[in-house]
Design goal:
The protein has 226 residues and is α/β, with parallel strands linked by helices. Helix content is 27%, strand content 29%. Pathway: Cofactor biosynthesis; coenzyme A biosynthesis; CoA from (R)-pantothenate: step 3/5; Cofactor biosynthesis; coenzyme A biosynthesis; CoA from (R)-pantothenate: step 2/5.
Length: 226
């Protein structure tokens, strides 16, 4: 139909997609996380499956059903997301799409017991989490890699910087300063960058954006040929 990527454009392709937030435990009952809904990643997964791909989603905690024909592998922390992504890519992967909002830092340690309210102020020591997308892109057998960049200012510059720094084939830039678009919304508007060009998509529903992204990724991943 008109809302889908051309039928069969990803036939025989194996996709791994990260989606949703991660949760970084502070103690047995508390965690650090963010407002990612996972909707964009799940919409891309569904569109890619409809386009003929075998799709695995490495998913942080979300309230979404697995799209038809998509295998969801649930994870909680950024460490889990890296480990499960590496495992899925090792099984064979042509295209890796990182839509997850991975927590950049985690508590240095998780308290064994619930932290009690005994002090007037407290601070939490945080350490940096591993970067799943950069790790996958640095593999000698790296698939075609697609990143997402949610930015509030200088969207094009920050996004293309990320593409170069992480050695990505493509980056989808999201201006999250626009109310009602992006995080936790059903709508989005993005600009896709690759080393030789760019294309704006939307504003549109996340499902329509997903189908258009899948078509663009299919076209470019074939050109690069890995
Ligand atoms: N990403 C990832 N693992 C991380 C952090 C980010 O796989 N630990 C991926 C995201 O899924 C996204 C891309 O990297 O596809 C860019 O994420 P973003 O948060 O915009 O970039 P960072 O490198 O974390 O930089 P910053 O948050 O400082 O802008
Ligand atoms: Ca980040």
């Amino acid at each position: 139909g008109s809302s889908g990527a051309a039928e069969g454009v990803l036939t025989g392709q194996r996709l791994v997609i990260t989606a949703g937030p991660t949760r970084e435990p502070i103690d047995p009952v508390r965690y650090i996380s963010n407002h990612s809904s996972g909707k964009m990643g799940y919409a891309i997964a569904g569109a890619a499956a409809r386009a003929g791909a075998r799709v695995i989603v490495i998913s942080g905690p979300v309230n979404l059903d697995a799209p038809d024909g998509v295998e969801v592998r649930p994870v909680v922390t950024a460490d889990d997301m890296l480990r499960e992504s590496e495992r899925a890519v090792s099984e064979g992967c042509d295209v890796f799409i990182a839509t997850a909002a991975v927590a950049d830092y985690r508590p240095e340690s998780c308290a064994g017991d619930k932290i009690k309210k005994t002090r007037d102020a407290m601070s939490l020591a945080l350490v940096r989490n591993p970067d799943t997308l950069a790790t996958i892109a640095a593999r000698p057998d790296a698939p075609f890699t697609v990143g997402f960049a949610a930015e509030t200012t200088e969207v094009a510059r920050y996004a293309t910087d990320k593409m170069q720094r992480k050695k990505l084939n493509m980056i989808v830039a999201n201006d999250v300063s626009t109310p009602g678009l992006g995080f936790n919304s059903d709508h989005n508007a993005v600009t896709v960058f690759w080393p030789e060009g760019q294309q704006a998509i939307g504003p549109d529903s996340k499902h329509s954006i997903a189908a258009q992204l899948v078509a663009l990724i299919a076209e470019h991943s074939k050109k690069v040929g890995n």
